[in-house]
Amino acid sequence: MMKNPHPARRRVYMLLGFFGAFLLLFFAVLYDAQVVHGSENRAKSITSNTTSEPVTASRGIITDRNGKVLVSNRLAYTLVFDKSAFGKDDGALNAAIWRLIQLCQELDVPWNDTLPLTTGVIPQLKTAARSNAFQEYLKDNELPTNASASELIGALRKLYAIDERYTTAQARLIAGVRYELDGRSSYTFAEDVSSALISRITDGHYEGVTIKTAAARVYNTKLAAHILGTVGAIWQEEWRSDEKTGYVGYADRGYSMNDLVGKDGVEKAFEEYLHGVDGKRLITTDENGKLTGELYTRKPQPGGTVALTIDIDLQQVAEDTLASTIQGMVDKDSNERGGAVAVVQVGTGEVLALASYPTYDLETFNQNYEELAADERLPMFNRATQGIYAPGSTFKLCTSVAALEEGIITPTTIIQDKGIYTYYKDPQPMCWIWRQARTTHGRINVSQAIVDSCNYFYYEVGRLTGIKKLDEYATAFGLGQHTGIEIGDESGVLASPEWAEAHDREWTDGQTITAAIGQSYNLFTPLQLANYVATLVSGGEHYEAHLLKNVKSYDNSRIIDVYDKGTLNEMHISESTMAAVTKGMHDLTHDSLQGAFSRCVVEAGAKTGSAQVGTDIANGTFVAYAPYDDPEIAIAIVVEKGGSGSLLANAAVDIINAWFTRGGSSASLGENTLLQ
Can you say whether residue 555 is alpha, beta or left, with left for phi > 0 and alpha for psi between -120 and 50 degrees? Predict the structure, then answer.
């Protein structure tokens, strides 16, 4: 018979059994928690300890055709205002907005406010108050659509519960922020703010304000401001789509409310390439809110590298020579004036340079905006693409081609200049040489008429050719039409009976003969004129003018897009016509323009123009191409109140010489540069 174990030993066995059972239970629970319900419990753990936040992708950089960096990035801070924490408490929301505005006023920090009402003691309506987007906003909020400024301020006070303790000027500023927040919970209040402001925000516990990091643009050049453009916060009217106009808002394009986007220039035109794809990350914090870790669930993909067609060195010469030419005229007569230069590559439509004067500095654009907007010289106006001017005698090249190709004249046809054109009883216009010196150009052919710019010759040729044919050829050259440039342009006006009728203008026989010499209702942009000459000297190959050369991924590893459009149309200008017209342009550079073109490094062709804009005021126009026997570039220059186009010849020679004496090779971009 087995004896009972010793009491002490029995207690040991019992304890071992207890611990064994405990371990079995522990492992069973652990197995259930980590294996059976592991994914569920991990998800609960992550949810309770982490937050998800977007990571803004770095904006793509912009280079010139040779890879020289024009625009890159640096780290900056933005202020985002979020109204969600205030619920329906309008009073608290308005107080928080006003407190933030006061701080920005104190530190002279601009903020985003696109409400189309001026600020100040007595607000006034801006032009944008009549825009479709703002009118939709008024209707959506049941606000009066034709109210005066004071009535609108009153309606906004009521809509946003801005009480009477705020003055009219203060209410306007608060309403501006509320307007930006309409239809969205938050927006980028201010970009690229100083560390001083960040410190005040942090120490002052400003409600509704969040500090975010973003990439601010770095301008590696002070040139090409009108081409490059600006970036900024998404405006209220840009956020929502508009079915009536077909506009697709950024909300429907996958953007965050607080993204920065291109506002104008190539920044806006190539937004889809430059924007990049935002990432996401999970931020883990402890019970005190201290960051303990981060995990990217999707890494941000920087925007692409956009290479433009412009040559920044040529752009420098174009801007400098335009500025010095205009300043020389201002110094003589004290009359302020503006002007533009466009340089287009023959046979491709690539824009090599595009200068507008006066210009501005993109680096200080935001700080100087009010001053720039008030400047009567209109420095923000891109005269190269938006300014429309009578072409003057530069249009005579088109008239020559039309008459020659239609068989109205031949290269050897002679017309006698009689000083006063008397075919019509009225009008009876004079040739310019008769008006100035009471003499004539005598018997001349088309090439000589180009050299002498004989109005009498082109009155007769224009009458014989007729406005229908003149317009047909002008249209084929792209005159009076959009050029296709990605940053947008004015279409201008091509004089015709149809245009006159549509605009309640008169059309007479006299309009036809003045249209033939580049007057009447003809108005074209400098870029149109450059592309017209490029089309002519290529033998009739008409391309869109464009700024995009190619787009590569941020790390330069793959090509995303390359501009590869063919011709818009081909005119097939005959060799005899080409020879007659280009001979006249070439001979001009050895005639009255010899003083300027004697220093030109290649043989070239040119045509001057002068278009009356007042009794004693004329704009100067000038077109040229080079080389004469194998055209590469075409140039157009327009100077307001510039007088004779011959005064612009030296500027054209500077540009031609810069292009044909360029040398060396540009350094290629490395990965580190692309990520700056």
Answer: alpha
